[in-house]
UDP-2,4-diacetamido-2,4, 6-trideoxy-beta-L-altropyranose hydrolase (Alteromonas genovensis), 353 residues
Amino acid sequence: MRLAIRVDASSDIGSGHAVRCVTLAKALQQALKADNILLKVDVVITRGADMLNDAFKAAGFSVIYVNDIHCDVSHIKADIWIVDHYQLDAEFETPLVKSGALVVVIDDLANRQHNCHLLIDANLTNNAEHRYNTLVTQNCVQLIGPKYALLREEFYHVQKKMVPRTSNHILICFGGSDPTNTTSMALEALKEVKDLPLTADVVIGAGNTHKQIIIEQVQLLDKVTLHIDSPNMAELMCKASVMIGAGGSMHWERCICDLPGLIITIADNQREATQCLASRYACEYIGHVTSVNREVIAAALRNYFVKNGAETATQKRLNKIVPLDGGAASVSKEIIYLINTKKDERGFTIEEH
């Protein structure tokens, strides 16, 4: 059986879309392997948006390039398509459906029409269950909410390691690429609270275009450790007592690790879920990156560690937001169910070993 993934990753787009696609593909491979079915994976990317090529190849996936985002992909034969791209919609997806493929869309904007069999949106919003009712076909299966967050396997097993919390320890991370370089702003904020006995881990991706600046900043700070492409993000989250970070998928990584957050949104599509979580005392929303500076971050840190106000104190039991029985394994079961119920009419070719 063949799976094709349409996704891009770059310093502007970030790596989150590609990472969650890889996570789902690996889980689907594992689930199908139990039925002696081999799933081969092709990743279709736009030339120049290839920041995670090494990760794709390390996972054993083939990479296929197209010249622009909206390129026709009818020459790529697949039984299943996963489409995770803000600039693609029903116009791109419809030919895939007509080809007989099972089409899975991952989205969190709810701002355009989709033509797919399965839609995944892990966001937590006040109107989550109705966001896509007018944007998808009536028979589309919708998996909505943090239960379906496509987190890497390490996050579901880290609790077994019993990683101890370190008091007064901060984790700083704004994603792999951090196009707004909010990491540097957070590091500058640490200078403003030197009187507090704080330590910190800082995580960035190898493709971060501000990497050298951040390296130099960290070298000037005591008790701050920089991690590039950290393979143990879940352990770092369990170790910290609070995180300064962005919204997006990191909300769900943070919550499953029961880690309080001081959140700065770095993209408009992160605001709604962050505001919703803040209203439920699942984070403290400092503000959008355009309205935040190092003094604002420093004040939030001082409030958290010194005043320990009621709002931050209630950031507890966050792991109840992201259940351990969800994630990519749960989504894979839904995909396999659709395969099993529709394969006769769609003529799937199943390769058994």
